[in-house]
């Protein structure tokens, strides 16, 4: 055992965060606040027969990360069909570039962004021709 089965993204503004992840990645949300005892929304990231995991947005319990501070935690990376289309959605919906698109030669395109809540995340488009 030890396989990752769930993730939590800490957010300051729940509605803004839900809107961002819904518009950029197509996620849907289920209100689990009653069980968690705080604002907590399960994130459904895809169909059950697709590779990947579901997670949650939870109310941040302290200050958000400071701009340009080193990453202190896990960075989630989402697989995407089109890097450029996804990047445009991220930027249109209030996200910012943390590390621009780069090639993982012979494997994929990769890059990192900052969501509306100050969290770093990655996007990854498989492409054997990346260089």
Automatic annotation (TrEMBL):
UniProt cross-references to Pfam families, sorted A to Z: Ble-like_N
PROSITE patterns: VOC
Residue ranges annotated for the VOC domain, each copy included: 3-126
UniProt superkingdom: Bacteria
Gene3D superfamilies recorded: 2,3-Dihydroxybiphenyl 1,2-Dioxygenase, domain 1
SUPFAM superfamilies xref list: Glyoxalase/Bleomycin resistance protein/Dihydroxybiphenyl dioxygenase (SSF54593)
Protein name stated in the entry: Glyoxalase
């Amino acid at each position: 055992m030890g396989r990752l089965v769930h993730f939590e993204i800490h957010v300051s503004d729940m509605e803004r965060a839900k809107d961002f992840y819904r518009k950029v990645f197509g996620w849907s949300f289920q209100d689990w606040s009653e069980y968690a005892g705080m604002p907590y929304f399960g994130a459904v990231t895809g169909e059950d027969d697709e590779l990947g995991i579901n997670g949650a947005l939870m109310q941040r319990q302290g200050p958000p990360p400071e701009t340009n501070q080193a990453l202190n935690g896990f960075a989630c990376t989402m697989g995407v069909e089109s890097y450029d289309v996804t990047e445009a959605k991220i930027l249109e919906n209030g996200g910012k570039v943390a590390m621009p698109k780069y090639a993982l030669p012979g494997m994929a395109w990769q890059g990192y962004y900052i969501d509306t809540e100050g969290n770093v995340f990655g996007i990854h488009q498989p492409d054997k021709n990346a260089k």
